[in-house]
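Q&A log
Question type: sequence-to-structure
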Amino acid sequence: MRGSAGPPQEPTSPSPGAVLTPVMPRASTPAVGVTGDVAQHSLDRFRALDINGAAFIAGHVAASTARNALSAALVFAVAIPMGLRSSATPLAWLAAAGLITLLILAVSWLTALGGLLVSSPDAASSFTFFLMLIPFTSSAFVPIATMPGWLQAFANNQPVTYTINTMRGLALGHQYAIGLAANFWKSAAWIVGIFLVFGPLAVRAYKRAS
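Response status: OK
Response body:
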């Protein structure tokens, strides 16, 4: 209502959340693949070929990212006939696609590390459940202000929330563009941080496992 007191209601749209929800669990596939290679003693053969640890893990991460890109494309292919409309420019769509791809890349390195630390593919698959919950504790589907107080602190300060808010601002514009720059840089900082922390740890765990 015009002229009413108080802060504006937090804008929300489920579209970006609908993209990340099926994609995030699939980012756990490097964990299962890496653990399978360890269980089958494939690392011994890779070591004999002098394959770099970063290259070994990057192969699993790249395959996971390709599958996730296909999943996201299928979500949009269904959403557009169902009524998804956007006034975003091609450059904005490209930026949104690049951001979600980088997030999946970073998370895939994290799960690859987990796969090198557990003893079986069954244990590695537990990452699927963990990652499936992350979008539901973010701004994906409901305003964070409507969540319980104890959950708001986490939801307001996690990478999926920043990424989804950035995607809304880029793809939907208008009221969703509020705080776009801040959300973008916070999302980028999270992604870079995940890379810098878990990438080297994954390579070190590969060397230790082999």
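Response note: DSSP finds ten helices and no strands in the chain.
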